[in-house]
Write a structure and sequence with these properties.
The complex is a heterodimer of chains A (about 280) and B (about 270). Chain A is flat. Chain A has about 280 residues and is mainly alpha-helical. The N and C termini of chain A lie far apart (about 55 Å). Chain A has a domain of about 45 residues. In chain A, helix 1 crosses helix 4, helix 2 packs antiparallel against helix 5 and helix 3 packs across helix 4. Chain A has 14 helices and 5 strands. Chain B has about 270 residues and is of the alpha/beta class. Chain B is globular and about 50 Å long. Chain B has a single domain, classed as Alpha-Beta Barrel (TIM Barrel), CATH 3.20.20. In chain B, helix 4 links the parallel strand 4 and strand 5.
């Protein structure tokens, strides 16, 4: 056991209710199977009240920060009606959830997103663009719950749409409203009616981005459902390779596209030719 | 050398902060300003900016995109030094993470990693690097060097400076059942470049005090004075409150009590 391996195990136990349950139960064998026996023995010997308390503290902070950041506009509008979604953090449902939370998981994000949406819905449901705002910020919140890739280099020769990238179509364009809230503007612009299609992606550092999704971009993302070599894809599409590579790099920068090794390339009908057919 | 008194930059308090220029001399930047922050140009012109962002946990190398981001922030702020937390918030595989400062275990293997990566980061950025220890709430029964010994060896071997948050030390001492003065005096105070002073509030999950957006208590201010009297390299004291919930009155009051305690009039 090293300090690193023990600290890794500690972080896993703090962020996973399932593993923490094993530690709190003193089940060295079961926890050891997941984090190493010596590490499990040390963690099972920690003060259970402090371990549990610290995990709850971390969990509450984890989701508070995300509600503030990712439901910023909905929260701002709701607070003007005297309702702050942060109060879900003090409610019994969230308190119970904390003891089963897996921080960073899509399942836990879904649970908290629904709690917040239930809190916001009575206020936002009364405004024409409210449901679109709720859908947009809920999508940001859920998208953020993906894996982090700190410090990993962008390598590989095959481009593929990231698993967490999603396209969202809204009945109202609420993005100027959200941007104004983030700037702290006192007066908020009224969202425009009409469909807005957005690409939402999670960057390697955990930053969630939203970008306008044109028809061409939507088709490109569809084509990238399977790994594609840029040169062949550009040729199949009849676009300059440099332009396509630039677009792919931009998409990779916001986390919508990932690079993979060529060995990951699929065979058969999912290569560039199939992608080109899809794009046409 | 004169000691600068400052606070953290909060975009939602930008106007009030600009009005306090002079009273607040420097601003620690915990997050980059929003691209469309209408006040940042004026802020940058009127305050010394200190880089205090999350650059990366130094148990791992800071490289690639993270290093490029750090370089961009150095260019943007032109800080006299760069601060990072002595923390570990994600696993080696980055598959589990907390979203809050969290101390490493103070072991010899992690010490070697922190030293190596801190030296590399300092060289890559071309600015002095100072590290801020994080309070320990949970004690893991495993052989460790102890916080003071780890910090002393880390500073000696890396060439970094110390950012000492006296409130962090107070919390570490409290949750270890020790005297905060004793813990602080065991640290290499001759390596202190910056001091943070935060307020504390009770936290229900921790069943005790933790860092809050409150004005520092007299006890914490006394600890700041204790350090200031023993830190010949001290350049800055920062009111450590960073929250979207921070109010302008608290910002002003926090800086004011620090000025009064240290006898540094505006």
């Amino acid at each position: 056991m090293t300090g690193r391996s023990l600290h890794d195990a500690l972080l896993r136990v703090l962020t996973s209710a399932r593993l923490r349950g094993l530690a709190l139960a003193g089940d060295v064998a079961a926890l050891g199977a997941e984090v190493g026996h010596a590490e499990a023995a040390a963690l099972c010997a920690t003060d259970p009240a402090r371990l549990g308390g610290l995990a709850r503290f971390m969990g509450r902070h984890f989701f508070r920060e995300r509600i503030v950041r990712l439901f910023a506009a909905g929260r701002r509008v709701a607070r003007e009606s005297g309702r702050d979604p942060l109060r879900v953090l003090e409610g019994p449902a969230f308190g119970a959830f904390l003891d089963s939370a897996e921080l960073g998981s899509t399942g836990s994000a879904e649970t908290v997103a629904r709690l917040v949406e239930d809190e916001l819905a009575p206020v936002l449901g009364a405004v024409g663009w409210g449901p679109a705002l709720l859908a947009y910020e809920g999508a940001l919140f859920r998208a953020e719950a993906g894996p982090r890739r700190w410090g990993t280099a962008r390598t590989g020769t095959m481009a593929v749409r990231a698993a967490g990238a999603r396209v969202l179509t809204l009945a109202w364009d609420v993005t100027p409203l959200v941007a104004a809230v983030r700037r702290g503007e006192a007066t908020l612009p009224a969202p425009g009616a009409g469909p807005a299609r957005l690409l939402i992606a999670l960057g390697a550092d955990g930053r969630v981005s939203a970008a306008r999704c044109s028809d061409g971009l939507a088709r490109l993302l569809d084509a990238l459902a399977e790994p594609q070599p840029p040169a062949a894809l550009a040729a199949a599409l009849g676009v300059p390779e440099a332009d396509l590579r630039g677009a792919l790099e931009g998409l990779a920068g916001i986390g919508a596209v990932e690079w993979r090794a060529a060995a990951a390339a699929p065979a058969g009908d999912s290569g560039p030719a199939a992608a080109a057919r899809e794009l046409r | 050398m004169a000691v600068s008194i400052g606070a953290f930059y909060h975009p939602h308090l930008a106007r009030e902060t600009l009005d306090l220029a002079g009273f607040i001399e420097h601003l620690a930047m915990a997050d980059p300003p929003p691209p469309d922050d209408p006040h940042f140009a004026a802020v940058r012109a009127r305050f010394v900016l200190l880089l205090h962002d999350f650059l990366g946990q130094l148990s791992e190398p800071v490289e690639g995109d993270a290093l490029e981001r750090a370089r961009r922030l150095v260019t943007l702020y032109d800080p006299p030094w760069v601060a990072e937390h002595l923390q570990r918030v994600h696993t080696t595989a980055a598959d589990a993470f907390v979203d809050y400062v969290f101390p490493p275990l103070y072991t010899a293997d992690l010490l070697a990693d922190y030293v190596r990566h801190a030296r590399a980061l300092q060289a890559a950025l071309g600015r002095p690097l100072i590290l801020e220890p994080i309070p320990t709430y949970l004690h893991v029964p495993a052989p460790q060097l102890g916080e003071a010994a780890f910090v002393e060896r880390f500073l000696a071997e890396s060439g970094c400076g110390l950012l000492l948050d006296v409130s962090h030390a107070w919390l570490s001492a409290r949750y270890a059942g020790r005297s905060a003065r004793e813990l602080i005096l065991a640290l290499p105070l001759d390596r202190v470049v910056e001091v943070h002073v935060a307020g504390v509030e009770d936290d229900p999950d921790l069943a005790g005090p933790w860092i809050g957006t409150a004005v520092p208590t007299a006890e914490l201010l006394d600890l700041a004075c204790l350090v200031a009297e023993r830190a010949p390299g001290l350049r800055a004291v920062t009111f450590d409150a960073f929250s979207t919930a921070l109010r302008a009155e608290t910002l002003r009051a926090g800086v004011a009590v620090i000025r009064t305690a240290l006898g540094v009039p505006a």
